[in-house]
Design brief:
Blueprint: H1 6-14, H2 19-33, E1 38-42, E2 45-49, E3 53-59, E4 64-68, H3 100-115, H4 135-142, H5 145-153, H6 156-167, H7 172-187
Antiparallel strand pairs: 1-2, 2-3, 3-4
Helix pairs in contact: 2-3, 4-7, 5-7, 6-7
Length: about 200
């Protein structure tokens, strides 16, 4: 038997008046389509777990959202609306949702995927092209063997942080100061955000 979380009740009660019937409807359909679902709060929004993360809903000032964790594997979902998080775009009324029958079928299909232990496909991110350091930074690093050796040992992401920091300087004096700080910190083997590591 599934469980209801009082934090979800509180979330719905705090929602905008237009959102309350939408959130109640989504909750009802999810529980009807997957009776063993468990409610929880993740990232400050109501989520439903069933043998792993399952689906979630959220309410904002002017719209609601609803989405399945493994949406890319669901048949009959249709095109994903990128206007908001979730797969149904900006939901402002019950009319913005598929019929209860179709929504229930999607819930059941998502539950079946979790029953079978199917994993959501990993998002493939295209590697960002290397960001070449500006000539003045390269020249400053070359003046210090220690800095140059440490720079070459840094990961591309550490180098990128420094390069972006130097390039973001608006004034020449600021850029010069940042280059000096970069050489000092790199010589000590520190990443750009070493204070927070």
């Amino acid at each position: 038997m599934g469980t209801k979380d009082p934090r979800v009740d509180a979330y719905i009660e705090k929602a905008q008046p237009f959102a309350k019937p939408i959130l109640r409807h989504l909750r009802k359909v999810v529980h009807a389509g997957c009776p063993d679902v468990e409610e929880t709060m993740k990232w400050s929004f109501p989520h439903f777990d069933y043998k792993g993360i399952f689906c979630g809903m959220a309410s904002f000032k002017a719209h609601c959202t609803f989405g399945f964790w493994k949406a890319s594997l669901l048949e009959g979902l249709g095109g994903v609306d990128k206007d908001a998080m979730g797969q149904f775009g900006r939901i402002v009324s019950l009319a913005d949702l598929p019929s209860e029958k179709k929504l229930m079928a999607l819930v059941k299909q998502a539950a079946k995927l979790n029953d079978q232990g199917v994993k959501a496909p990993r998002m493939v991110r295209n590697a960002r092209p290397a960001l070449l350091p500006p000539d003045d930074l390269v020249a400053a690093l070359e003046k210090s063997r220690k800095a140059q050796t440490a720079w070459e040992a840094f990961s591309p992401s550490h180098r990128r942080e420094y390069v972006e920091w130097v390039l973001d300087a608006k004034q020449p004096a600021t850029r010069e100061r940042r280059i000096g700080t970069t050489v000092e910190w790199v010589s000590a083997g520190k990443g750009r955000n070493w204070k927070y590591e």
